Amino acid sequence: MTAILYDARWVGNHGIGRFASELQKAIPDLFPFHANRRPWHPTDPVILGAALWRRNPKLFFSPGYNSPIGWPGPFVFTLHDLNHLCVSENSNALKRAYYRHIIKPACRRAEAVLTVSEYSKQEIVAWAKVNEDKVVNVEMVWAHRFLRRGKNMTPDIPICFMSAAENRTRIFRVC
């Protein structure tokens, strides 16, 4: 039996991919899960649930928002934010249905839901109606190698990171 099966399909040169890669480096005892389908495919939760029945890990851990359906074992997944619900440019009826019927129930079934900011944590707790202790803010601590070394920098103006610099994910509004 594998101790922690880690969804390594997320590793790549994109936001969740970099997060996934850094976590995989930082936690050496993860056993990578690979499959020929993308973890964001709408049918992945059902197929993933069946694959977990066969592998029977002690814990399934996803650095992304996919979660298993039909598998009764423990799992942890990561919901970076709710932008597919909150930002009209990134939302549509299928995404809203996926969040309502797949992600919200997964938030309730999961051992824990990881997220990357205190703001996202509070939004997820309110939206999914889960106990605050279930949602863990990991604060992007994995990105220590990207932080500036030496004297702290205090900007004169507020800084707000909007989103990835890709047309499909750019957010055109002020936080």
Sequence-ordered SSE layout with sheet pairings:
Blueprint: E1 4-7, H1 15-26, E2 31-33, H2 44-55, E3 59-61, E4 75-78, H3 83-86, H4 93-109, E5 112-115, H5 118-128, E6 135-137
Parallel strand pairs: 1-2, 1-3, 3-4, 4-5, 5-6
What does this protein structure show overall?
The chain is α/β, with parallel strands linked by helices and 175 residues long. The protein has helices at 15-26, 44-55, 83-86, 93-109, 118-128; strands at residues 4-7, 31-33, 59-61, 75-78, 112-115, 135-137. The chain has one domain (4-145): 3-Layer(aba) Sandwich (Rossmann fold). The protein has a 6-stranded parallel β-sheet, with helices on one face. Strand 5 (112-115), helix 5 and strand 6 (135-137) form a beta-alpha-beta unit. Mean pLDDT is 83; it is low at 155-175.
Q: What separation lies between the terminal Cα atoms?
A: 45 Å
Question: What percentage of amino acids are in beta strands?
Answer: 5-15%
Average pLDDT, all residues:
83
The secondary-structure element order is: EHEHEEHHEHE
Helix content bin: 25-40%
Any idea of the CATH class? Alpha Beta
Contiguous uncertain segments of 5+ residues: 155-175
Q: Structural class per helix/strand content?
A: alpha/beta
Please compute the radius of gyration using only Cα atoms: 17 Å
CATH fold category name: Rossmann fold
How many domains in all? 1
Write a brief caption for the model.
The protein has one domain: Glycogen Phosphorylase B (Rossmann fold, 3-Layer(aba) Sandwich), CATH 3.40.50. Helix content is about 30%, strand content about 10%.
Give structural attributes:
alpha/beta, 6 strands, disordered C terminus, 5 helices, six-stranded parallel sheet, 175 residues, Rossmann fold
